[in-house]
Amino acid sequence: MLLAKIQEFQPSSKGFNVTIRTQIKVVREGLRQGSYISEAAVSQGILLPILHELGWPIFNTSVVTPEFTVEARRVDYALCHPANRPSVFVEVKKVGLSDGADKQLFEYAFHLGVPMAILTDGEEWSFYLPGEQGRYDERRVYKLNLLERDVDEAVSRLERYLSYTAVCSGDALKSARSDYQNVARDREIKAVLPKAWSTLLEEQDSLLVELLSDKVEDLCGYKPDLELCSRFLLAMAGKASPTTKVPEITNYPRESNRKAKERKATATRNKYSFKFKQKTYSASSARDVMTQLLQLLADEDDTFLERFASRKHGKKRRYIARVREDLYPGRPDLADEHSVEVVPGWWLGTNYSRSNIQQIIDLALEVAHPNLRSKIEANVL
User: Fold this and answer.
1) Which residue has the higher pLDDT, 348 or 187?
2) Which of 142, 235, 236, 335 has the most Cβ atoms closer than 10 angstroms to its Cβ?
3) Which residues contact 244 (CB under 8 A, 6 or more apart)?
4) What mean pLDDT comes out for the span 314-326?
5) How many CB atoms lie within 10 A of CB 183?
6) How far is Cα 162 from Cα 200, in angstroms, rounded to an integer?
7) Phi, psi at residue 139, to the nearest 5°?
8) Could you tell me which residues are beta bridge partners of residue 276?
9) pLDDT for 52 beyond 90
């Protein structure tokens, strides 16, 4: 269906401004559905259609060259002008897995003196000037997230840095250098910092909640419940009263603590429930709601977990993974204690607050088929 939509929108005599906007909307919908499950899918379903709408002759391999050789290594795409002479290098990664790939990309660009480099996982696009000074991240001109930025902003930036005519004329490089040096960028960053902090508090990425929990334990010797940390962050963001009743913190011995959790699970059994296709399911906890719901979605659609895994998850973690240890990179202790095999071969992380669990559920519903999505009610807040 997605491929049919992409093929439907071809360049018109009105110019590519309209079609690139339409193409971005198609890509955004595909990203939300988890349709791009590999690097090849990102290349063929996102990068090449966007390059096409930006005027690049994608079937001319002397202009858009795949697997361009740099000594014994290869860069995914070289955008060339004149023919066979790279002006832009593009490295493609699987959705959510672009972290750390900039070093490799810079090595390619440095070797041949290519002035502009782009790293993309389909959702995030980072535009770099390798020849400038500073660390890799300091030489990034702009970072575009197709799901977070509005369509007009995405169109403007892609046309400014990546349209065929702008690259060929040199305007793309001039614009990138101008933007890099523009002091207005620093002013914009300073203006957005309070909003970014507020958003972090509101969204409560699981790493932020856990960092707060660990720091409290470092300072006083007691490790607070994740729900307590979650409510505190909500209060800091102005979304809840700081006096909201929170659970008491108790430093139980390990055995007593486990028994306390068992008693709590018994006391709260059937407190949670959700509806799936007009049937009500009971659950013992928010985590149980999340687990059952993902199992039911996987039973309904054998592509669901693969598409869900292709979505961008937490800052460093994966909500689900085929390899248990991938759920919490660098934390094998969490992988052992806080994971469950939802279906054979797929592991789900469970070390999350209710707020994080609701985010995971909402993300899963985005990926689910629209006809099925309308038949699900699941709220753990």
Assistant:
1) 348
2) 335
3) 231, 234, 235
4) 86
5) 7
6) 31
7) -95, 10
8) 279, 376
9) yes
**CATH code matching the domain that covers 272-377, chosen among 1.25.10.10, 1.10.260.40, 1.20.1380.10, 3.90.1150.10:** 1.20.1380.10
The hierarchical CATH code for the domain 2-182 is 3.90.1570.30
Give residue 340's pLDDT: 93
CA distances in angstroms from 112 to 89, 109, 165, 196, listed in the order given: 10, 6, 22, 37
DSSP run (H or E) holding 362: helix 354-367
- What residue spans define the domains of the chain? 2-182, 202-251, 272-377
Q: Residue ranges of the alpha helices (H) in 145-248? A: 151-162, 164-169, 171-181, 184-203, 206-220, 226-236
- β-sheet with 376-377: strand ranges across: 279-283, 272-276, 376-377
Share of the chain above pLDDT 70, in %: 84
In the sheet with 124-128, reading across from the earlier edge strand, the strands are 64-70, 73-80, 86-92, 116-120, 124-128, 140-145
Half-sphere exposure of 130 (CA within 13 A, CB side): 22
Instruction: Give pLDDT, residue 135.
Output: 72
Question: Are 82 and 76 within 8 A, CB to CB?
Answer: no
Condensed to tens digits (0 to 9), the pLDDT of residues 158-173 reads 999 999 999 999 999 9
Q: Which two tokens stand for residue 315?
A: 């800052």
Span 20-46, pLDDT tens digits? 999 999 999 999 999 999 999 999 999
Given a cut of 90, is residue 150 above it in pLDDT?
A: yes
Q: State how far the alpha carbon of 54 is from the alpha carbons of 31, 146, 354, in Å.
A: 20, 16, 43
- CA 337 to CA 327: how far, in whole Å? 12
* Two domains, one topology: 2-182 and 272-377: no
The mean pLDDT of 244-264, rounded to a whole number, is: 46
Instruction: State both tokens at 16.
Output: 């590519």
d(CA 96, CA 121): 6
The Cα-based distances of 305 to 12, 174, 298, 364 in angstroms read 37, 43, 6, 9
CA dist., res. 69 & res. 77, Å (int)? 10
